[in-house]
Amino acid sequence: MQQRIRHRVVFLAFLTSVLLYLDRFVLSYTERLIKLDLGLTEDQMSWGLSAFFWSYALFQVPSGLLTDRYGPRRMLTVYILLWSLGTALMGWMNGFAMLIAVRLGIGLAQAGAYPTCAAIVGRWVPLKSRGTASGLIAVGGRIGGGIAPLLTAVLVMSLAAKDNPDLDSSDIVAPIHLARQIQFRGHAFEPYPGLTDDQNARWKIASSLTESFRTPDWDLIDEASSNFVTVRGSYKTAMGMAPQDFGVAPKVGATSAGSLSLQLVTRLRDLLNRRLNGTPIATVEDLQALPVEREAVDLLATSTISNNARANRLILEAAFPGCIRPLYSAGWRPVMLVYGLAGILIAALYWIVVRDSPARHPRISREELAEIEAGRPPQMQVDASQARPPLPLQAMLRSTTLWLLSGSQFFGNIAWTFLVLQLPRYLQEAHHLSFADRSFYASVPLWCGWGGMFVGGIATDRCVKRFGLRLGRVIPLVGSRLLGTAAFLGLLLEPSLPIALALLSLVAIAADFASPATWAFNQDIGGRFIASTLGWGNMWGNIGSALSPLILASVLKQSGSWTGPFLVCAATYAIAGLCALFVDPRKSIDPGA
What we know:
Blueprint: H1 5-29, H2 31-38, H3 42-58, H4 60-70, H5 72-89, H6 96-110, H7 113-124, H8 130-159, H9 175-187, H10 197-210, H11 215-224, E1 230-231, E2 236-237, H12 262-276, H13 294-301, H14 305-319, H15 332-353, H16 366-373, H17 393-398, H18 400-416, H19 418-421, H20 423-431, H21 435-467, H22 469-490, H23 497-526, H24 530-559, H25 563-580
Antiparallel strand pairs: 1-2
């Protein structure tokens, strides 16, 4: 039993890593719900996604210094508590300013997590097993990232209101755009032959929605759409709406060209609710081409009055995207509280089990302590009671190899961050997946990646034994970047969903295979300053992550397709591999090494 104290310590670092990614990326998978619920634009959401990484990046080195000074037990407990409270506060967000403030705070608190975990490995794990232990902790992050979309989707759908699917006035977020589309269908009696399959499906649903409308109902639609009259025979409208615009989400800034009185919105709401509480507005076959939630299909299979109303609400959301607040919007706020409470529990366990050094743990045996210290250079046999020398900042700034690894992390993270920030949007826009489906498929690459993480830890240890320290770290780093570059180039061909997921999974495997070598590299050159050294590299890596959503969103907007962002990711991954080719972990920044 006593021989396993270090295993418990590493396991708690693993759990911390799981929580780290779960809380970090919950925003990515609730982005659409939060955007509509808070009335945010695409640019504001991009900044919300980016905000975390700015504070996370800039506090990497200070947090490492705090850990080196005050010890990993105290500091990681504080870090977990602070970011868990921030995650819980996300459930009370009421606008863009609070989104930015809370995400900056979470990034600030999470910045110290991995540097502190690296310090734990450096103090508690024998030198021969560092790569494996680092790989296990890094796998925890990928497992957290993998379960984040799945668990978040399940919790959101479970915690969303089940009893009343009726629309409130505030649920009609783009009333004019919605009324114009309904009116367009009312004047153009036959579907336009140039419509896509999904637009034809929306046309059929609109036909079912309006089949019971009477003259007063159409008068209301005409009034709500601001007299948006169709020019018969040309399939054009007085304000430029063409058939290909039917069923398309309103553009940012165009959700309400003018404004409707509350009385008009209320009448529109009552009209829609009357129809939603009637017979189904679509069949299961009608929904094949639309990103409708699975729940709607299940409800149609067991048709009752209450089931019909909820199914119709979900179908209406899919048929007129961006016009109706999603029914699941009620579920994202309590999810944040659940994740926050889980973090408080892990912080308590960490404080109870972990000590700053093995020698200070009351239950460690002499045999285990001797095994931990075996093969460790004298300057790294750390006693928490010893005074810390000052950080060799000049040595860090003059270290070419540290700058090269930082560059590899910077460019690599620009590309890798696509998997956890932009992938849900890509699946929605390019493959037209529902919330539940895109949450499931977004997890696939991350689940595949964690295998690469664990194998990468073992591989770098074995490469060191066979090829020496330098090549043992360089081979996993460079090889993984080349594989990731090739996978992103494959995505330029606009593949089908299964092939796209396979290529994205290769990206995740390649990125995760390199992570243990990156961790071990920082432990190799860090000496007594592991947390600070790892924090330095993480800072540059996460500056890349902070820029990623802004760069890729801008490229997507300019190029009009996802080939632009994929080309950027391929190029940055190639540059990351070039930087990694010249690193040398034998050159320590510790003057005492």
